[in-house]
Amino acid sequence: MTDGTFDGYGGRHVPDPLQEPLEELAAAYDDVAKSDAFRTELRDLLEEFAGRPSPLYYARNLSDRYGAEIYLKREDLLHGGAHKINNALGQALLAKRSGRDRLIAETGAGQHGTATAMVGALLDLETEIYMGKKDVERQEMNVFRMRLMGAEVNEVTRGDQGLADAVDAALEDFAENVADTHYLVGSVVGPDPFPRMVRDFQSVIGREAREQIQERTGGLPDAAVACVGGGSNAIGLFHAFRDDPVDFYGAEGGGEGSDSTKHAAPLASETGTDDVLHGMKTRVIGDDTEVHSVSAGLDYPGVGPEHAMYRAVGRCEYTGITDEEALAAFRELSETEGIVPALESSHAVARAIQLAEAGEHETILVNLSGRGDKDMETAASKFDLS
Ligand SMILES: Cc1ncc(COP(=O)(O)O)c(C=O)c1O
């Protein structure tokens, strides 16, 4: 049993009508977590539908250039093009077992919405996605893809028209329709049990990577690096290494710089504060800051509570990677390895390059959380390659 907090962060800060449904969800999750039948069904779908295990790739050219051994965990090769499917499959199976016939989800970059639309079609569940208008415009093809798979996509026009507003809209829908609806939260955020449940579903990333790197190198990496939006791919990578002598590095959306007033780096920025957001106590960006990142998936004012705890206890170092640095890494990985990363994952690549240049780590494991196809239009507007 857990009270759903991480050294005081997290919890269940929601209005009364949501307390009971969340308690029921937590109990249902605790049950399936122990069920062999559930675990087998999920494992089979992860293999046959999603394409697990994802490969571990030694980035030869990048390693030669920077003088460190850089390994990429290729979540970009999964069905849908990102790690989001690991969690979407887990929660959709849970929803089905709990008798829910409707899924709702929020999405920023469109990757989680896409993953939800995929599992909605697979398991024959009615699916509705909330997405900020700003993100609908920059991720047009993902919106089309979700609709193609039968999901309804609702454009959210309130507030900044971004991910946080999409979460608000989805939470309202959930509160009105708890009887038949499962809110398929896309990251390690929100009220308990979401942060720990999403972590558990994503921790397959680190379990595989730990085995793969030991097989390949005979040891553990010195550092593990991942980008942090809500924080699910990062926690998914870190969890299996939490008791190992492996340094953790989180790369947040630094926007115009985490000391500027336009970024999405609540952990790296000096102006981040402890507050309650979307049902959890966590770290959020300061009031005078505009949430901004070149990548829609990192464009969120808060972060998962377990990361707030990791920061507080010094287990992980968080850095804001600027839009410019992320775009440079996006281009560099494309040119050196023939792999086009998602803009979100490019933040992790940029941080890994910084670490390799600093020369303090011999082996660096990077979570390549997604592929960059969805970002072609943004990239084409930034680079003139003619
Ligand atoms: C490819 C990719 N990586 C990372 C993220 C950030 O989410 P999280 O921090 O939960 O992994 C997203 C979010 O949409 C994404 O699409």
TrEMBL record:
Residues 50-370 form the Tryptophan synthase beta chain-like PALP domain. PROSITE patterns: TRP_SYNTHASE_BETA. Gene3D superfamilies: 3.40.50.1100. InterPro entries: Trp_synth_b_CS, Trp_synth_beta, Trp_synth_beta/beta-like, TrpB-like_PALP, TrpB-like_PALP_sf. Keywords: Amino-acid biosynthesis, Aromatic amino acid biosynthesis, Lyase, Pyridoxal phosphate, Tryptophan biosynthesis. It is an enzyme of class 4 (lyase). Tetramer of two alpha and two beta chains. This is Tryptophan synthase beta chain. It comes from Natronolimnohabitans innermongolicus JCM 12255. The gene is trpB.
